[in-house]
Amino acid sequence: MPGPLLADQTAVITGAAQGIGFAIAQLFIDEGAHVVIGDIDADAATAATRLGGDARAIGVRCDVTSSDDVDALLAAGADAFGPVDVMVNNAGITRDATMRKMTEEQFDQVISVHLKGTWNGTRKAAAIMRERKKGAIVNLSSLSGKIGLVGQTNYSAAKAGVVGLTKAAAKEVAHDGVRVNAIQPGLIRTAMTEAMPQKAWDQKMTEIPLQRAGEVSEVASVALFLASDLSSYMTGTVLEVTGGRFM
């Protein structure tokens, strides 16, 4: 039988104290990786390391909008486990409001965390990876970045930007053996989505051919595919995990 897909690799995941990021961290550890859980909430990041019962995970506070914090996150991983092999840029926030009501601060916050945060993570990890001539970067976009959703001019713009960033970065570092790909999840069952009004949930369900919401584990499995050698001839791609919604 083949060994674990990420045996002894160092994986750094932002926004990994909960939700999709946490599910990715769990699966990566199951597949042999050492995981660095980055999160703006230091206590939550530390608590999340319980999934690595044999000291396979560490938690580090990280504000992805700060390049210094991202440097510190990568350095902590290198000190604990070795240089980064896999970088997953997952950290994100929402500040939903219609364009008429949205404040500049709400717009700037979302753009900064999603787009600048992904840029920081991509460029900082790529700089380390290209020296070693190998590495995989996985960026979390969203279906909202493909179709645009009402009340999310900030989020849709940021997530569309992540796709452009991913493709441009992939072209820049491909010759150094570094791959950069993105995932666009659709309606995924999380604490945030389950708090939606039932009417909004029901409307979204009518748009999904598979007739159900996705699970965080289903996004994590795609992240594992892109992080591992199973996708060794893929870079600059965007994989939709949407149940067929808006295909």
TrEMBL record:
Gene3D superfamilies: NAD(P)-binding Rossmann-like Domain (3.40.50.720). SMART domains: PKS_KR. One of its GO terms (biological process) is fatty acid elongation. InterPro entries: KR_dom (IPR057326), NAD(P)-bd_dom_sf (IPR036291), Sc_DH/Rdtase_CS (IPR020904), SDR_fam (IPR002347). It holds the Pfam family adh_short_C2. Keywords: Oxidoreductase. One of its GO terms (molecular function) is oxidoreductase activity, acting on the CH-OH group of donors, NAD or NADP as acceptor. Residues 9-186 form the Ketoreductase domain. PANTHER family: 3-OXOACYL-[ACYL-CARRIER-PROTEIN] REDUCTASE, CHLOROPLASTIC, SHORT-CHAIN DEHYDROGENASES/REDUCTASES FAMILY MEMBER. Belongs to the short-chain dehydrogenases/reductases (SDR) family. This is Short-chain dehydrogenase/reductase SDR. It comes from Gordonia bronchialis (strain ATCC 25592 / DSM 43247 / BCRC 13721 / JCM 3198 / KCTC 3076 / NBRC 16047 / NCTC 10667) (Rhodococcus bronchialis).
